[in-house]
Amino acid sequence: METDRRPVTSLREQALGIIRDAITAGELDEERIYSAAGLAKQLGMSLSPVREAMMSLVTEGTVEAVPNRGFRLVPVTWSDLEEITRVRVLLAVPAVRQLCDRAAGHVGSESAEPADPVADGSSGASEGASGAPDGAEAADEPLRIQLEQLREHAAATAIAAEAGDATGFFTHDRRFHEALLEYGLGRRAADISLRLRDQSRVFRPQGAVDEVNTTSARELSAIVDLIEQGRADEVTELVTRNLYFFKRTAPVPDES
């Protein structure tokens, strides 16, 4: 059983997470109206937290309420996916660049004085195996911890993808990108990106999606590696490609 360090959540939050993952994975049909009671029975949960979760999704714009009937997914089109992804990229790129700067020692303690290579007789800062200057890790201990947490999320995502566990894949992939944005830009940026992510959908048959899941999951560990090495241009390209996951799972529209 996986050990999860996240704090214990309420029944509402548990229901919200399960329903979000089901929507993202394409397990709920846009054409169907779902009652809170029916979803509660399907999830094996009591009615109140499921109803509260669905109302939260209404507020977020992911579902809409149908009076006297239940809830329906807000339709997402090909152009919607493109717009959602573009905005998420606008947030993710500065986030990973900020983390790369920290890893390279460009952003440290405000009180730290820059080393003088002439005064200490050296020709410049030496570099460790990661390509970052020696001492950069010590100057930013929180970053080391954050990278470890990102690696844990990346590993859990890959394990789920390899096992064909779509729900687990989407759960851990969401946590990875949530942490990436929060560590790079802050909580508000993470919340904005997650809300957009939760409006994305998978459209292809499960077999095709499984292959995309595995490729996408493997990219997460590479993203962390590139951040640790301070390779901003390369990680910018990779995180952009990774965020286009949902476009890779969407059928190409017929332009004829």
UniProtKB/TrEMBL annotation:
SUPFAM superfamilies given in the database record: GntR ligand-binding domain-like (SSF48008), Winged helix' DNA-binding domain (SSF46785)
Sequence segments annotated as region (Disordered): 106-137
Record key words, sorted: DNA-binding, Transcription, Transcription regulation
A Pfam family annotated for this UniProt entry: GntR
Stretches assigned to the HTH gntR-type domain: 9-76
Gene3D superfamilies named among the record's database cross-references: GntR ligand-binding domain-like (1.20.120.530), Winged helix-like DNA-binding domain superfamily/Winged helix DNA-binding domain (1.10.10.10)
Compositionally biased region (Low complexity): 119-136
Protein name, as recorded: DNA-binding GntR family transcriptional regulator
Record organism: Brevibacterium marinum
